[in-house]
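Q: My labmate handed me this sequence with no annotations at all. I'd like to see what the chain might look like in three dimensions before we decide whether it's worth expressing. Could you predict it?
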Amino acid sequence: MVDGGLFFRGACPPGFLLWPGGVRPYELIKAKRDGKRLPPDDIRAFLQAYTSGDVPDYQMSALCMAIFFRGLDAAELSAWAQAMLHSGEVLDLSDIPGTKVDKHSTGGVGDKVSLSLAPLAAACGVPVPMISGRGLGHTGGTLDKLESIPGFRINLPVSDYRRLVRELGCCLIGQTASVAPADKKLYALRDVTATVDCIPLIASSIMSKKLASGLDALVLDVKVGSGAFMKTQEEARTLARTMIGIGAEMGRKVTALLTDMNQPLGRAVGNALEVVEAVEMLRGRAPEDYTEVTLALTAEMLVLGGKADSLDEARRKLQAVIDDGSAVRKLKQIVEAQGGDPQSIDDYGRLPQARSTLEVPSPRTGFITGIETEAVGLAAVALGAGRQRVDSRIDPAVGFTLLRKVGEPVKVGEPLVRIHFNEPGGVEDVKARLLGAYSFGPEAPAPRPLILERLE
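A: Here is what I predict for the chain of 456 residues:
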């Protein structure tokens, strides 16, 4: 008998653990594959065994694929989320004054909102304990962007995390070994087994990681469209309601905005390039779409954090900390406290720079009618800005500047995109991918709303 009630029958190899009553991981995988309900105790035991290494990746992959096709009912999802949350340490920040509020995005292309949102909220007095993730599939990751700032440390002891939330009002880290370790293992596995875009797995991953970080309230940015995991508003609404339900069950206030991801957010795609755009947003000089989504989400944080009585009042406070420079100063404080180079926030030349650029010319005259955003994200991965495998190295300098976006006019031969690259091999393939992502027409399409829906 071993911890958690698991036991071996003879010298069973990993993957053939038995629960009391003789239930094997194999049988749970088969049951879910066949559409049967999994008992909560068996879900908890399976996740505990996977976290400890007694269930191998290939069996967890099989179960995730079965869940992808068969789903989890409310009781199964509750057990799965609770097991993920309690697979490690659940931080208690109740001794830090104020309502601790975080934001989570379900992932998009060019989505650097967290980089500007966190210092904005902290500058307005909302404590932001932010545990973020890396890129998944075609989407970028907050941690990868932060690590493009020279020296920035995303791996801090819990004691430093608590101290910085108390002293600066913000800390931006990755998952520690002790916080939601089941999610940390599963997060990387889902990325390479085509099980990222699965509502039960997305919801439990997000909520277990976020609730373990010590927050009191959460704002969700659920992306919708060609560059999101949720392609339709109905799917996004289902995901948002699932996460709101998990939060309510665990005593947390959760608000969700469904936001458009039918084209990249802002103009920059790529880690260091997105850091520059995020800093420019704090100076009031970023693209309108990125600025609007950031302000909308941060305003929700101020209301949940009790720093504004209405969204309008929150907007005024956010504009004030942009205008007086408080937001940029807060970012510099965070960067310096986490070992990064604060001068890079003023001197962008200190950030990683690509050695070469190449402009992609438009093949037509007319208007940009659409951008296949997932294709842009996959082109960024192919260039080296994202991961094709768990152990892939990211080049923080490479990426794209979108010179034309949906609704804008273009003439044949004018540049659509500027590619920033270091290695010339594969650039022509990336160029072809980007050209294939753009569509053209004789007239500009009707503008799409950025904020599609609000749920609470």
